[in-house]
Amino acid sequence: MTARRRRIACVGGGPAGLCTAIGARRAGxxxxxxxxxxxxxxxxxxxxxxFWDELLDALHRHDPPTERALRAAAVVxxxxxxxxxxxxxxxxxxxxxxxxxxxxxxxxxxRARELGAEVRFDATAADVEDAVDGADVVVxxxxxxxxxxxxHAERLGADxxxxxxxxxxxGSPHPFTTFTFAFVxxxxxxxxxxxxxxxxxxxxxxxxxxxATWRGLGLDTMPAAECLLTLERLFAHLLDGAPLWxxxxxxxxxxxxxxxxxxxxxxxxRWHDGRVVLAGDAAHTTHFSxxxxxxxxxxxxxxxxxxxxxxxxxxxxxxERALAAYEAERRAVLRPLQAEADRSTxxxxxxxxxxxxxxxxxxxxxxxxxxxxxxxxxxxxLLRATQVPAxxxxxxxxxSVRRQVRAQxxxxxxxxxxx
Length: 419
Ligand SMILES: Cc1cc2nc3c(=O)[nH]c(=O)nc-3n(C[C@H](O)[C@H](O)[C@H](O)COP(=O)(O)OP(=O)(O)OC[C@H]3O[C@@H](n4cnc5c(N)ncnc54)[C@H](O)[C@@H]3O)c2cc1C
Description:
- It is a single chain.
- The chain has 419 residues and is of the alpha/beta class.
- The protein has 2 domains: 221 residues, FAD/NAD(P)-binding domain, CATH 3.50.50; 86 residues, D-Amino Acid Oxidase, Chain A, domain 2 (2-Layer Sandwich).
- 44% of the residues lie in helices and 22% in strands.
- It has 15 helices and 18 strands.
- The strands form 4 sheets. It has a 7-stranded mixed beta sheet, with helices on both faces.
- Flavin-adenine dinucleotide (FAD) binds next to helix 1, strand 3 and helix 11.
């Protein structure tokens, strides 16, 4: 008698689902790995996402070709800046990477297919059912509004809390080569944006404000085109005349309001129910002000496939043990980041009250730099030094050298396991 072919089904072709497919194929977890994504190929919500060297290190250990492709598709943003209205900017230093979601998903899908996974875009509900039916493990990588999580709600016990702020994820051709936190005072309260470059001629601009400000400015009812013009005017001093765009998949019909939403903070009592396991945003979210949701989703996928490697998928107890170990490992990684994200969210919430009265933007910059975790006192002096152009350039050069050294170390460490 021939053994039954083993199958892993990933619902959702985001970072979590696609990276799980890569890991599962690499580790030979199952004979068949299928990803079902409801959107057509090349279509995605949102614009660019940030990440840091830690992700490249982890991907390099997991699958060097994926790390190389991501590094090639990414751009570096150099330093961070705080700008309150049109007052003098405060420079915060630091650096990181960003990549367009389109590019990220395309490189992950290509690699998954190269390794023998099936990636089905434009999947109908019937396609999803077909993939899930009889699968040995079903990975719910279907994002923040996960249907699978809802379906298994009783066991998983989701806790979803909506923020009191509204945000909209926009793109712009303006190159925000420095990660920009900009606050603009309006008659109805503060509106702020996070701007960062993610391609040669593309930046992400996430605009956020309190619900009362959003309604007070009429952004809740004004047609999307007028909303974009309003935001372009508010941030004109940063955009240099460049437009703001809504992602093609989120464009509303003519005359309808722009797609502002509330951030959803997701937690679950359990991450798996039988052979269904949550990964990425379906399992947890962290506020975008700390830019780590994609890194966490990819990290979940890497841990999950590592835990499933070598497991007899025919044995319920072995699968249960692997999924429990995955959940414990990833909860430990998630916990401090979720605490940072909560601190960051609280900082932005509290800020709206006190911003106007603060004459000292340097102190505000210091507070922004410490919004997620405490910083040693010497960093205050570093922040002050960073305001001097020559010292800022020096700090930027040091960051560049640090990135290069890290890349070399990665290459050296990985030279033994190249594939
Ligand atoms: C404004 C904003 C800015 C962000 N910036 C950053 C950042 O700078 N850095 C960072 O690391 N993270 C960032 N994030 C978070 C990041 O986008 C998410 O954490 C990440 O995309 C999660 O990956 P995922 O695969 O779990 O889910 P998703 O990327 O949401 O993918 C889920 C996929 O599942 C598909 N799907 C859903 N239901 C079904 C179904 N029934 N059948 C088939 N397919 C289905 C969806 O179409 C989607 O493609 C940001 C998020 C927001 C909202």
